[in-house]
Amino acid sequence: MEDDPSLLSPEEARVLGCLMEKETTTPEYYPMTLNSLCAACNQRSNRDPVTAWDERTVEAALDSLRRRRMAVMIHMAGSRVPKYRHTLDQVYGSLDDPMKAVLCELLVRNIQTPGELRTRTERLHPMTDLADVEAAVQRLADYGTGPMVTILPPGAGRRVKAVAHLLCGPVSGTSTEAPETSTPAVREIPPSPDWRAAMEAEIAALKQETASLREIVDRLKGLLD
Description:
Radius of gyration: 34 Å
Strand order of the largest sheet: 1-3-2
């Protein structure tokens, strides 16, 4: 089956998420140069998975996003290099700030629980409580032209439900069924051929020890009488 051309690649998703993130967290450095965007993609914090992409990889993702009308290249006065900004609103025009914050976090960190999203979206758009996060997630799941996220039930190593974005397509490896496990066979160990002789010897030793103890007790009684 051929890949769906409407879906983003992992590189495009990361680049888009970084542009959305830096627009809010470091507006003084936005729009972004290719060099700064490459550094943002390869951050060791707030990224999953951690990557080590070169500028060619990031530039290719940018070119694809520009063709999708999700990013543009601009030339700013006083800047010697072009800069880039996202244009997500041109494709998804009705996303409010909570929805953008949730989507951004999912793009840069992939699958997360509602509790994790509440903590991590704080720097993008503060959520009053978990209900605010879940409401934003539901609006993304009910988006008019098609769901942008999916809600995953507990399972696959998760104790609680989680959220994943769908801009790269259906999420794989999220089966909630526990893997089948086979019951280990019980191997019967046959008794040793001389087990009876060993048992009889042990009984004889116990009888002898009992007789010795009885003799000691009788002596003590004689002393007390």
